[in-house]
Amino acid sequence: MADLLARPCGGTVERLTRPARVYALLAWTWSRALAQYPASLALMTFGTALGAVAEIFAVFVVFRHAGALDGFSLAEGLLIASLANLMFAAADMLMGMVEGLGQHIRSGSLDVMLVRPVSPLVQIATDRFAVRRLGRVVPAAAVAGFALYHCDIDWTAGKVLMLPVLVVSGVAIAASVWTASGCLQFFVADAREAANSVTYGGHALTEYPLSIYGKGVVYAVTFAVPLAFVGWQPVLYLLDRPDPTGLPDLLRFAPPFVAVAACTAAALLWRLGLRHYRSTGS
Amino acid sequence: MRVYSAVYIAGLRRYSTYRAATLAGILTNSVFGCINAAVLLALFSVRPLINGYDAADAVTQVFVCQALVATVAILGPPLDLGERIRSGAVGTDLLRPVPLLGWWLAEDMGRATFSIVFRGVPTLLIGTVLFDLLLPGTAGHWAAVLASVALAAVIGFALRYLYELAGFWILDTRGIWAVVGLVGPVAAGVLLPLPLFPPGVADVLRALPWASMIQIPAEITLGKESLPGGSAAGGLALQAGWAAALLLLGARLTSAATRKVVVQGG
Amino acid sequence: MTSAHSDDAVIEAVGLGRDFVLSEGPLFRRRRRTVAAVRGIDLTVRAGEVVGYLGPNGAGKSSTMKMLTGILTPTSGSLRVLGMEPARERTRLASHIGVVFGQRTTLWWDLPLKDSLELTRHMYRVPAADHARRLAELTGLLELGPFLATPVRQLSLGQRMRGDLTAALLHGPRLLVLDEPTIGLDVVSKATIREFLLRLNAEEGTTILLTTHDLGDVERLCDRVVVIDHGSLAYDGDLAGLRAAVPVPRVLVVDLAEPSPPLEVAGARFVRAEGPRQWLELEDNPSAVIARVAAGNEIADLTLREPDIEGVVAALYRGAEPRPA
């Protein structure tokens, strides 16, 4: 790892992959620094893992009482909840720190990042990179595995191949939503808490079959803030279930495209925000 | 007494400057209220009655919870006391002629008052507009709710005071927050109303201090018989008991901490 | 490496300006007001110069610094730093300059200094061998050895500043931009840093631009002083020229044995008294005045106060026409 970056400026490929490598390097350095307090790290990781367990446990309790919600069984409900949790947890780990943007602006540390020859977005996203958030991913993945096993899924080669694509797309979409809502702080200084209602609220929303919230909400999270592609559409695809809200079945193949669009939109918003910051000085 | 009211007003003033954050907080609480209410409505449409709770009870609890959650600060923020203990600045606080516990209690009650009036009440109003909530019909009932909310705020303070006070003995109180940040919401009835848990578990949780911050005030609002003694009076007595016990413990530990600082010089 | 414009100019600003739009008043009745923070500055800094960039708070110093480093986009004029346009080529420029903000660290708060410096190396793509050599060199000069393994948050202000300087210099920048590098430091740390900067300038020819409120920094370091006030250039020349342009007298503070009526001494003018302490503005050389005071009074203590930069700059703006040297 140490010498990956220590080369003179390279070609196009090098330029394009550099942010990812700088990201990995910064994240690694932070993780190593935090690992100097292993007891504290273990406790925090365990605590974070319990957080995911508690949320999935709530879904379990609700489904145990209900038997089935909107035609989704307990195992299917757990599949939705665990996949959503998994993707949001991974996205939170990768880009969650962007929500601290306002703090970086106020303290002037954004200026410090801007005088370094590395993307400030990468620097913010890796600031105090919290490996402990992996703690959320582990129980979510375990429950997802359990639920996949217990759901009545007609496994085809296509589904096996699609599963990782859907997971990666979901993570990318959730990370984009996280980044974009963080960028709002470029324009409105106190936007952090309001943005939380989109990020954490979106997370809470996607833990249940979206159809229980009614058509209006489903349309909003399909076409406005594309969270329907984080857990909901992938599960409909895996279960071969028609969309209960009557949206076309073709949408379940959209996640990779939505992911690209969402990442592009988030990147543009970041650039716009940074330009705004540099042209207003606030 | 003068000192405490001055500190109380300072706490109130301090939080009243965060207007945008208050508005955003109302938004966040309302969004979470709507999401949780929708989930519970879906559940109760399948099972109309669970351990004495029906759909209207559950939705009412969801919004009482969202109205209270910032006031009792069950999910944080921690008291600034923790930062002062870590930096050693608490040494000067201990030299003040005002007891540490009283000082921070007054400050936090200022914060809680602002929070309940400008964040809690609007959130509850939004809930009543969007859903059919079961709110008290008589002045006496409202008085009981008000008392319950006040006690909940004191318990919320006392718990956070104890978490931070632990900083005198252990290095990093973030570990404590990592644990209570999870246990708290589950045991208080934030994650789900306690009646959704098996009755035996629910009764145990109801007796713990966290339930006195959310679940008990919600049941007092709803006038539930599941309260200790079957009435609001029993619920208030439980809350008052916890408030007194936790404050007493806080005072005891403060003296112990003071001795430790005096003897070891921090 | 970069297309040098006019021979050896490191910074070339022509008519550089920066406006801010402020929104004022209550919501719905906001008024927009344009305020010029920097107005039409012409400034050329050549390779190897050490330039003090001075001015009262709010004069436009930090806006200029931000434009030079590419953080802030200018609203008018042209600006080239090392042949690059900072606002458009910020990332590329960043690899060739070093920046230190005295009031906020560029190091990572929770990491040991060594790790912070290692991260910096990767960000600036310094080859490992060059890094090791340069780090050893800087560690020796700035005496970093004893605290390389200490987390940054536990460093004293002076240690932190030495760490920040190291981080800013590891990639061998041709231009070093320092914003209040000695603010809040003790006398010894200040001296260490000043000596180091002089040596850096002499041995490597690094161009240095610094803002400061400390006259000592200016006297010790700067061949050239640029004063900005209300966004405009008020003076550009050497320190002696600045002093000559705006003569601000030195002040003698005399602590007498007991409160006395205002002293009347030739070569000094009474300013004010506070109990037994009196302030005298010197018009003659200090030793002569002190001798005269001592002749007629019992003196408990004496201090001679140099006019500070604030005073000089304020006087410059109050009265005398700027007179470029």
UniProtKB/TrEMBL annotation, chain A:
Q: Which UniProt keywords apply?
A: Membrane, Transmembrane, Transmembrane helix
- Residue ranges of the TM segments: 41-66, 78-98, 162-189, 210-233, 253-274
Q: What is this protein called?
A: ABC-2 type transport system permease protein
Q: Which organism is it from?
A: Nocardiopsis flavescens
Automatic annotation (TrEMBL), chain B:
Looking at the record's lineage, which domain of life comes first? Bacteria
Which regions span the lipid bilayer?
Answer: 21-46, 58-76, 116-135, 141-163, 175-196, 232-251
Pfam families per the record? ABC2_membrane_6
Keyword field: Membrane, Transmembrane, Transmembrane helix
Record keyword Transmembrane helix present: yes
Question: This chain belongs to which protein, by name?
Answer: ABC-2 type transport system permease protein
Q: What is the lineage of its organism?
A: Bacteria, Bacillati, Actinomycetota, Actinomycetes, Streptosporangiales
UniProtKB/TrEMBL annotation, chain C:
* Keywords assigned by UniProt, alphabetized: Antibiotic resistance, ATP-binding, Nucleotide-binding, Transport
Does the keyword field hold GTP-binding?
no
**SUPFAM superfamilies recorded:** P-loop containing nucleoside triphosphate hydrolases
Origin, by domain of life? Bacteria
Which GO terms of the molecular function aspect are on file?
ATP binding; ATP hydrolysis activity
Q: Specify whether Metal-binding is a keyword of the entry.
A: no
Q: Which Gene3D superfamilies match?
A: P-loop containing nucleotide triphosphate hydrolases
Cellular component GO terms, alphabetically?
plasma membrane
Q: How does it sit in the membrane?
A: Peripheral membrane protein
Q: Name one GO biological process term.
A: response to antibiotic
User: Can you say where in the cell this protein is located?
Assistant: Cell membrane
Q: Which InterPro entries match?
A: AAA+_ATPase, ABC_transporter-like_ATP-bd, ABC_transporter_ATP-binding, P-loop_NTPase
Can you give the residue ranges of the ABC transporter domain?
22-255
Q: What is its main location?
A: membrane
Q: Sorted alphabetically, which PANTHER family does this protein's record hold? A: ABC TRANSPORTER ATP-BINDING PROTEIN, ABC-TRANSPORT PROTEIN, ATP-BINDING COMPONENT
What is the protein's name according to its record? ABC-2 type transport system ATP-binding protein
Taxonomically, what lineage is the organism?
Bacteria, Bacillati, Actinomycetota, Actinomycetes, Streptosporangiales
